Amino acid sequence: QNPVFITPQMIFEVLRSLSSSSFDRIVSEGFDQMKYAETVCEISRKLGVHVVVPPQDLCLGNRRLNELFVACVFRTLGSGIEQLSKEEELEVVTLFDDFDSGNSREERAFRMWINTLGISDLYISNLFDGCSDGLVLLKVIDHIEPNFVDWKNVENPVTNKFKKVANCNYVINLGKQLHFSLVGIGGVDIMGANQTLVLAYIWQLMRCHIIKFLNDLTVGDKRVTDEQIIKWCNTKVSANSARQMKSFQDQSLTDSLFFFDLLASVEPRIIDWKLITPGRTKDNLMLNARYAISIARKLGATIFLLPEDIIECKPKMILTFCAAIMAIALQRQQK
User: Fold this and answer.
1) What is the tens place of the pLDDT at every residue in 4-26?
2) What's the pLDDT tens digit per position in 289-306?
3) What span, in angstroms and rounded, lies between the C-alpha atoms of 295 and 109?
4) Of the candidates 285, 18, 37, the residue with the CA atom closest to the CA atom of residue 27
5) Residue 112 CA to chain centroid, in angstroms?
6) Which superfamily, per CATH, for 101-216?
7) Measured between alpha carbons, how far is 293 from 320 in angstroms, rounded to an integer?
């Protein structure tokens, strides 16, 4: 994965959120990175920030220089920064923890999901090792389906590998009862931290949790399906836009424009359309994806995907994003 690059436009948005009164100048659609950099330096000085990086250097793409600039902003204006949510805090830890940098984005997303379920005495720093004794997965299953786990059948404490396998076999049996697709997955695979198979199992757990949550918000006895989530999104967008998505693998989603239309259908006032790019370059795709995720979080959605997941159109992560927006919209309707 490429290191996180803080662009002048991102710094601009940080400054705008901290001190909107200093932004009496309207940003035109023609602003390039240099114009953003010049504006950022000018406004930073007005706000009392000691500017140690000139505009031209902000545009070079030097990660450490741009992080230094943001550090100066934080030191001067940090009192205006809101406290991170739990999932955002976990994301920051993950992005900048070198030990964890080799793990997949799916591992990160699923681990964050588990850690934010609010299960007492449960926190894992590595998904595969953390799930190897079966206890974490059994606690997650019990959280999603209360009283589904018969704890008399669980080995706890786990003192040897045979007890680990017994717990993991029970995890597989419960998954089958939940109608998971578990062809070729056994308890020994979870105990042995087989990454592909562990991710496959936990994805089905996460999806089960998402669908169950959406079921609780909708009226009717039928289980919410992927197709219904897609139909709901398309219906919401169609009121104001011709954009539609065919599936969670639809490559047209990579520019995030469909998501902006969807988010606007939930709260029209939350998006600054001047900040949205046409999405024709890699940099523009990244800026759009970051902004879409930021807007979803402002609405109160719990988000686990990264901008790269949108740009690469990862269907599992796209599903979680659409479902999170749908959940927020349904919650607003019930208020």
Assistant:
1) 567 888 887 777 777 655 555 54
2) 999 999 999 999 989 899
3) 19
4) 37
5) 9
6) Calponin-like domain (1.10.418.10)
7) 12
pLDDT tens for 146-201 read 999 999 999 999 999 999 999 999 999 999 999 999 988 999 999 999 999 999 99
- Show Cβ contacts of residue 69 under 8 Å, excluding neighbours closer than 6 positions: 6, 11, 40, 44, 51, 52, 53, 58
Q: Distance between the two ends of the chain, CA-based, in angstroms? A: 41
Q: Say how far apart CA 226 and CA 209 lie, in whole Å.
A: 13
Q: Give the model confidence (pLDDT) of 30-59 as tens digits.
A: 567 788 888 888 888 777 777 667 777 777
Q: pTM value?
A: 0.69
pLDDT at 2: 40
Q: Read out DSSP for 75-100? A: HHHGGGPPPPPHHHHHHHHHHH-GGG
- Quick one: average pLDDT of 126-144? 96
Residue whose tokens read 């379920």: 117
Instruction: Decide if 88 contacts 62 (C-beta within 8 A).
Output: no
The tokens for 298 are 């402002």
CATH (one of 2.50.20.10, 1.10.1740.10, 1.10.10.10, 1.10.418.10) for 221-334: 1.10.418.10
Q: Where on the phi/psi map is residue 243: left (φ > 0), alpha (ψ -120 to 50), or beta?
A: beta
Q: How far apart are CA 180 and CA 71, in angstroms?
A: 46
The confidence band for 82, taking pLDDT boundaries of 50, 70 and 90, is: low
Amino acid at 315: P
Q: Which residues of the chain does CATH 1.10.418.10 include?
A: 101-216, 221-334
The Cα-based distances of 140 to 16, 89, 205, 331 in angstroms read 40, 21, 8, 24
Among all chains, which residue has been given the structure tokens 């704890």?
151
Q: How far apart are CA 244 and CA 225, in angstroms?
A: 18
Alpha-carbon dihedral sign for residues 94, 229, 271, 83: negative
